[in-house]
Amino acid sequence: MRHFVRWFLFLTLLCHAALALNGQGEDERGPLSWSQWVDRCAQARVLYLGEEHDGVVDHELQRDTLQALSRRRAVTVVAEMFQLPSQPVLIDYSQGRIDDEELRSLSEWDKRWGHAWEQYLPIWQVCQQQTVELRPLRNSTESGKTLSKLGVQGLTAEERVGLTPEPYEFGPHPESLRKVFEAHAGPVSLEAFERFLKVQTIWEEFMAAQIRAALSQDRMVVVLVGKGHLLHGFGLPQRVQRGWPHPLQQAVVVVNPQAEERSRCNFWWTSR
Length: 272
What we know:
Elements: H1 2-22, E1 23-27, E2 30-32, H2 34-42, E3 46-51, H3 56-70, E4 75-83, H4 87-94, H5 100-106, H6 109-112, H7 117-129, E5 133-138, H8 141-144, H9 147-150, H10 178-185, H11 190-215, E6 220-226, H12 228-231, H13 235-242, E7 250-255, E8 267-271
Parallel strand pairs: 3-6, 3-7, 4-5, 4-6, 7-8
Antiparallel strand pairs: 1-2, 1-8
């Protein structure tokens, strides 16, 4: 057992070294060392680790940042990769009652998320090893199919718990999301794009409610979410704050943001 622990620590240090060699933290003042990076992250009550869903560096950074933070303080992870019905499964996994493959199977990962399991698995393993609470960020696929027609009423009664009152708005510059939408769906009409914005807005209001629910405990909240939910429109931080009774210290982190995106980030990771 002692040999295994030493080997695990060696691999962890090796992962940090690989990240350090291939990138660095930055903010508007310049580079951040790894220890400065972790210190900055630890100052947030809510830390958003934005991602490209197929970004290898994104997931490595999420894993190592989470591991470092969980050694300092109690942490809750709220992850877009899981849907609300999987909450009991995530509890069982965090408590070590089920293994990696059962997490994949019982959460219906391949059906409900579908991105590379192998890239995300090390993050979930850190949660289990460090007994980090793991919570879902998304509503169910089934309710999601009804949102463009029914609006908020398309969510189940359980999914509507904690939502702020309507009306909801996407926020400024909705055209910034058109390229993202058309990359998935191809050229679309204005009507179709407006339906997409409506659904996106309800998704984000639901996500904000899940983050506020996690904040009800005295823990740091780390949110794993696609960076589009942070860099377009109002974004999750503003939606979370809207329904919280006092100011929250929140931080947005993204890997390799474009120049115009940096104004929405508190600090970022640049990979070489």
